[in-house]
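Query form — protein DUF1611 domain-containing protein

QUESTION: What is the three-dimensional structure of this chain?
INPUT:
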Amino acid sequence: MIPAPYLLYLGRSNDAVGIKTSRGLAEFRPDDCVGEFRHDDGPLTLGLPRLTMAEGAAAGAKTLVLGIANSGGKMGADLIADAVAALEAGMNVAAGLHQRLRDVPEIASLAEERGLSLFDVRDPPANLPVGNGNPRAGHRLLTVGTDCSVGKMYTTIALTRAIQARGIPADFRATGQTGILIAGDGVPVDAVVADFISGAIEQLAPARNDNGWDVIEGQGSLFHPSFAGVSTGLLHGAQAEALVMCHDPMREHMRGIPGRALPDLAECLEHNLRVARLTSPDVRAVGICLNTSAMDRDDARKLCDTIAEQLGLPCTDPIAFGTDTIVDALLAG
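ANSWER: The structure tokens for DUF1611 domain-containing protein are given below.
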């Protein structure tokens, strides 16, 4: 486990989506977050106390969480310098980037010198199996999306909590850096060798016989040219009996690919169902979840109602309006 409390890193990021890991920790583990670190020219904030590295350590932070994501997952010079500063202040450092902390000489040597720990969240487990697609017991739900970073993790956690509130066992199965930091375990599926993705998810959500649910965090999108492979492996390994589609109605194009439009919701949903049927022939869609955080609340509600009527499925924003309608549909099936 990564020692808490945390100082959350924003750096100089101007990408509101790119700070989703820090934002997720602030949202779902607020008691473990003492503040945020950002430079003077960093325009974003989580509304937490702004602290220097020394102030964060003095406030009790045991770990600086480099809670940002960027294309390719590389560490720039600023981020490396800030990680070094955190170590000099006496904090451990955790990151979910593809470039490992331990592979940066100045970070690794200083951590060893100071007796501090480095946590690379995107390290997949060793000895993952190859998936086989054989039927296994248990109820599983997988969130899927029209794009990456549209709210799949938020939806998955919200659904898990809503199922638990009904007195039914449910477990959030994390597959990305933010979810793993929140849950304390999981599989960073985008760091798994392609041949082992479905097997990793079979291992993450094995057979269960307690009538409970594994609620599995989706990644990427079947319609995103960069990440469709990960999405496919998740669909096959999850062997889900239920899918929930996530979508950001304010997104102007696929993330990172200007000019490429997001898919039609109905088309995207049917494509995901078709791929999922390879290992779960009776899979069904049980709802649509929108990220309407940038919309007027009344407009958001009207959009949810319109989409629900068009697709014949419950549609909600899990944060603004809850997930009861989707859980009703899930449990009624």
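ADDITIONAL NOTE: Residues 92 and 116 are 5 Å apart (CA to CA).
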